[in-house]
Amino acid sequence: MSASVAIAKLNRALKDLNLHWQNTSTVWHDSASTSFKNDVIDEIDPAVRHTLSAMNSMAELIQRIKSDCT
């Protein structure tokens, strides 16, 4: 799998997670849902965004290396 495909898949998964959470939170709104949002959902989003940024940097570096080697 290429880096760009992996980045796209991870980005899509994050969007899907947020969409599913929005749908779920309309029917699940008790203290457990608040804890889940605070402990899981709110922690995943910035971590995945940071990971996506790192993956993009790595993909750019790999592309420069490939260009330098040809």
Radius of gyration: 17 Å
The count of helical stretches stands at: 2
> How many strand units?
0
Inertia-based shape: elongated
Q: Write down the overall mean pLDDT.
A: 94
Taking pLDDT < 50 over at least 5 consecutive residues as the criterion, the unreliable ranges are none
Binned strand content:
under 5%
Structure class: mainly alpha
Distance between the termini: 21 Å
Largest sheet: none
Total number of distinct structural domains: 1
How is this structure best described in words?
This protein has about 70 residues and is mainly alpha-helical. It has one domain. It is built from two helices and no strands. The model has no long low-confidence stretch (mean pLDDT about 95).
